[in-house]
Amino acid sequence: MAVNFFNEDIDIKLKDKSKLKTWIKNTIEEEGFKLKDINYVLCSDAYLLTINQQYLNHNTYTDIVTFDNSEKEDQIVGDIFISAERTQENAEKFNVSPATELHRVMIHGVLHLCGYYDKKPEDKALMTEKENYYLAKRIF
Fold first, then answer.
1. How many domains does the chain have?
2. What is the CATH number of the domain that holds 108?
3. In this structure, are residues 84 and 101 in contact, taking their beta carbons and an 8 Å threshold?
4. Where on this chain does Zn(2+) bind (predicted)?
5. Is 58 part of any known ligand binding site?
């Protein structure tokens, strides 16, 4: 079981990696799943736009793209691509710290892997409620 962090075309240093990993694992377990393997790839807007176009046929900028690679229903395996530029912009827009916005997006990806959606208004409301709940449980 592992949570891995990678950078692609940007240089960003995450603080408290071990605490981040524990928080992510605890979230997954509280949702009733087992963590097997999650890879977070922090990248630029341009890099994530290419991923969005190539794999999802979306020609828009986004803060996150999540790929669910799970083979068993109770295990979490996935790749989560996050635009560090977009999370920085959103932090300013929503008047929160860059770390808080990055953590929100990180847990948003986990929630997608746990089966939550955000396309319909009621699904988005539940997703935001879950994000807020788990953000409040951060151990750092």
1. 1
2. 3.40.390.30
3. no
4. 108, 112, 118
5. no
